Amino acid sequence: MVNDPVLRTRKPLLVELGPGILGNIFDGIQRPLKTIAIKSGDVYIPRGVSVPALDKDQLWEFQPKKLGVGDAITGGDLYATVFENTLMQHHVALPPGSMGKISYIAPAGQYSL
């Protein structure tokens, strides 16, 4: 609503990142508007509607880098690529501060989230 107060929670904001985010339009709390319109059958967002930010059923092309089982990997290392479309690709990296040896890496192919 207009002029509603904004309260500080002192907690970090959270968004879900992954393939499919670039081809979507979201409202202010990362709900995909097209999915809401299809689900509700209306152009307006109904009260209480809840839909995931990313489509968990869609398949994405996964291509691992030239790493294998037993290889050492540290934070920031790129270990795979996921293709959003023919123009955009996501590089998959190990989170900062992480390290270890690869025990399994999925073969190239199509996977869902």
- Level-2 CATH architecture of the largest domain: Beta Barrel
Q: What count of domains describes the coordinates? A: 2
Structural class: mainly beta
Number of strands: 6
Helix content class:
under 10%
Look up the CATH topology of the largest domain. Answer: OB fold (Dihydrolipoamide Acetyltransferase, E2P)
> How many individual helices?
1
Supply the CATH superfamily name of the largest domain: RNA polymerase II/Efflux pump adaptor protein, barrel-sandwich hybrid domain
Strand content: 15-25%
Mean pLDDT reading: 91
How many angstroms does the end-to-end distance come to? 34 Å
Order of helices and strands: HEEEEEE
Largest sheet descriptor: 4 strands, antiparallel
- Please, what is the oligomeric state? single chain
- What is the topology, as strand order, of the major beta sheet? 4-3-1-6
Catalytic activity: ATP + H2O + 4 H(+)(in) = ADP + phosphate + 5 H(+)(out)
InterPro entries: ATP-synth_a_Xtn (IPR031686), V-ATPase_asu (IPR022878)
Protein name: ATPsynthase alpha/beta subunit barrel-sandwich domain-containing protein
Domain ATPsynthase alpha/beta subunit barrel-sandwich: 51-112
Can you offer a commentary on this structure?
This is ATPsynthase alpha/beta subunit barrel-sandwich domain-containing protein. The chain has 113 residues and is mostly beta strands. The protein has two domains: 16-45, no CATH class; 57-106, OB fold (Dihydrolipoamide Acetyltransferase, E2P) (Beta Barrel). It has one helix and six strands. The protein has one helix at 33-40, and strands at residues 60-64, 72-74, 78-83, 89-93, 99-101, 109-111. Strands 4-3-1-6 form a four-stranded antiparallel sheet, with no helix packed on it. Strands 2-5 form a two-stranded antiparallel sheet.
